[in-house]
């Protein structure tokens, strides 16, 4: 099984970069069994909309993970609560809109997805470690021990991300970090067969401040004043990883880090 995962798709720049990148990546790496993206910043930097959700599906995206911004647009709550192809962090309260884990199917292949959020420098929520224990048991009791499982761990601290990956090593196929918008160069296969990267990066404009135009974000750092962020249009690129999984064991055999600069029309 071969999975393409995109780091946080940010703003319109990210959406356009994704649309251009997917055909290029398919030509270069062959077809993918599943395409998964983190979408929490897709609607002008915060949250999602129905229109963007359908736009991503039309590109061939099979599932979407998210993070703390997924609830920023209340008009999206209905889809978040009803559609099984989009996920929010599982370690928020059960009463929150959406689901934190599930299984998607394509061409008779199944992929388990778990969305988790970190605790360090983030809102106070349930432990992602103990939440993962419960969710993994639930998925494997229903679908078998060889079910491939991808974990999107939306967190600030690289130490927390790596700790979770070692905690889950051999129980899931991949632990992929998101949230910081800065791709890390530490992709590897852990000793028991789990693929890992601290952060898959950002699909969007890389010429600014993690997707934001420099001048619009600078007052926050210089004066501590509220800012109206504007999307960065410079240096658009796709960031993500390709994870290849053994169909018999559900464990990872290879992880490839992807940086693909693209050209956007004005």
Helicity level: 25-40%
- In total, the number of strands is 13
Strand content: 25-35%
Largest sheet: 7 strands, mixed
Cα-atom radius of gyration? 17 Å
Task: Point out poorly predicted stretches.
Answer: none
Mean pLDDT: 96
Can you tell me the overall shape? globular
Total DSSP helices? 6
* Beginning-to-end CA distance, first to last residue: 37 Å
Strand pairing plus helix content: what structural class?
Answer: alpha/beta
The string of secondary-structure elements, in order, is EEHEHEHEEHEHEEEEHEE
Describe the protein.
By secondary structure, this protein is α/β, with parallel strands linked by helices. It contains 6 helices and 13 strands. The chain has helices at 11-29, 50-58, 77-82, 128-143, 158-168, 214-222, and strands spanning 2-6, 8-9, 34-38, 63-65, 101-106, 109-117, 149-154, 174-178, 188-189, 195-197, 202-205, 236-245, 252-261. The strands form 2 sheets. Strands 1, 2, 3, 4, 11, 12 and 13 form a 7-stranded mixed beta sheet that branches. A 6-stranded mixed beta sheet has the order 5-6-7-8-10-9, with helices on one face. The longest helix is centred in the first third of the chain and has 19 residues, at 11-29. The N and C termini lie far apart (37 Å). The mean pLDDT is 96.
